[in-house]
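2024-03-11 09:14:02 INFO worker-7 job=invfold-0412 stage=load source=structure_tokens
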């Protein structure tokens, strides 16, 4: 018999690829964090001698969810600002105590973020926020997969922006052999980019294949390189430099016109769809159906809000679907398959991680979630997926695995998770 670390048995399995079928009575064999086989439970039980068996007879196993862009600190920063004002008004508090309290608050916020991500079934996330050190350290220590976008300075000087590029390269070299951490260029104001720095970044991206994640904001997108006296949009400039290829991830916050969709689609760029954040700006937003028609791969992202403090990607997919159906007056334009794909393999492709995660296939990392089906109708794939996205009850995600290691068991953090979070 063959050996493996874990045999994971479930009543239902949704592998996404190479077959997007709902499979019954399936077992996944995992060794050294990697999926080595998936197949009929009876056959795999007879073929493998595992170190551990885990039977989940009333569960769905599917790939872990991919949060392709997250801004988690909107609410937490409001709390922090209030706390800092209170601290500053207390004249007896020393500067040392202030720094200590602020550091503790940052650690607490980071711990809360990771707890929410894991409880929501997220096994991979992308983050672009300064400072990045706490997020990188915690992600690596805890064992959750991440893309860390290092923001390039918005100061319109060549020297400052070149220094930012150098810092990204340093981090990339530090983590290039780390399977959990992927470093990316983060761009929050592309309109402020020096043309020379953009050219240098294009060379680096083509040579080293470092991803770029850029925030799409209408104000920046329609702007010109005013500071550099160049009469073309930054998007056109990026396209001319070859920066809009598969490693370019556009965080969509506003409406995309036809010309922009064609440019992005023809260059093979990726889009991170953030419906709740984009619609909240009330400046127009491009629905999923238009992105689908343009042939653009789409991942899903979100910002933490009062209505989605749990960071539920299923809820965000529901918002994306309802908005697309409303905008196009077509209830069938965006399918359930489209939505589940966006949460899994689509998100992995958006982050250039499709060879590592996003589906249940031999050779990929065992990034998996197990959902209790007690409150979900699962008589067919369609009813199951509809229950996950449109159901009144939030799916009960009871197990979360990253590279075969359990970070959540029976809806509770594992001992490893607890020990690393409290470290």
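2024-03-11 09:14:09 INFO worker-7 stage=emit residues=423
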């Amino acid at each position: 018999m063959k050996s493996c670390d874990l045999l994971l048995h479930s009543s239902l399995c949704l592998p996404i690829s190479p077959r997007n079928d709902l499979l019954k009575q399936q077992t996944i064999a995992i060794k050294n964090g990697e999926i080595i086989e998936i197949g009929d439970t009876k056959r795999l039980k007879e073929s493998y001698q595992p170190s551990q068996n885990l039977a989940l007879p009333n569960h769905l196993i599917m790939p872990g969810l991919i949060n392709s862009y997250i801004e988690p600190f909107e609410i937490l920063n409001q709390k922090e600002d209030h706390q800092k004002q209170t601290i500053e008004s207390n004249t007896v508090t020393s500067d040392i105590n202030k720094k200590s309290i602020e550091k503790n608050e940052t650690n607490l916020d980071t711990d809360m973020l990771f707890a929410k991500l894991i409880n929501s079934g997220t096994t991979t996330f992308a983050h672009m926020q300064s400072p990045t050190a706490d997020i990188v350290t915690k992600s690596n220590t805890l064992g959750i997969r991440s893309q860390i976008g290092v923001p390039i300075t918005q100061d319109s000087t060549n020297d400052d922006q070149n220094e930012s590029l150098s810092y990204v390269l340093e981090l990339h070299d530090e983590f290039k052999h780390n399977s959990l951490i992927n470093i990316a260029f983060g761009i929050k104001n592309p309109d402020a980019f020096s043309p020379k720095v953009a050219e240098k970044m294009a060379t680096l991206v083509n040579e080293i294949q470092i991803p770029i994640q850029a925030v799409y904001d209408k104000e920046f997108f329609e702007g010109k390189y005013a500071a550099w006296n160049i009469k073309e949009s930054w998007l056109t400039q990026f396209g001319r430099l070859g920066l809009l290829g598969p490693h370019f991830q556009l965080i969509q916050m506003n409406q995309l016109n036809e010309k922009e969709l064609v440019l992005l689609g023809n260059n093979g760029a990726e889009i991170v769809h953030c419906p709740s954040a984009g619609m909240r700006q009330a400046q127009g937003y491009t629905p999923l159906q238009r992105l689908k028609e343009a042939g653009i791969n789409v991942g899903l992202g979100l910002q933490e809000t009062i209505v989605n403090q749990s960071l539920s990607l299923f809820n965000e997919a529901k918002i994306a679907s309802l908005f697309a159906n409303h905008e196009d007056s077509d209830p069938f334009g965006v399918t359930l398959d489209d939505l589940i794909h966006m949460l899994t393999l689509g998100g992995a492709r958006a982050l250039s991680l499709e060879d590592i995660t996003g589906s249940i296939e031999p050779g990929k990392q065992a990034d998996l979630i197990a959902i209790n089906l007690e409150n979900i109708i699962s008589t067919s794939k369609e009813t199951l997926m509809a229950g996950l996205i449109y159901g009144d009850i939030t799916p009960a995600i009871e197990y979360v695995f990253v590279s075969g290691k359990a970070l959540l068991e029976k809806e509770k953090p594992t001992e490893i998770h607890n020990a690393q979070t409290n470290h």
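2024-03-11 09:14:09 INFO worker-7 stage=report msg="Residues 74-106, 220-227 have pLDDT under 50 and may be disordered."
2024-03-11 09:14:10 INFO worker-7 job finished
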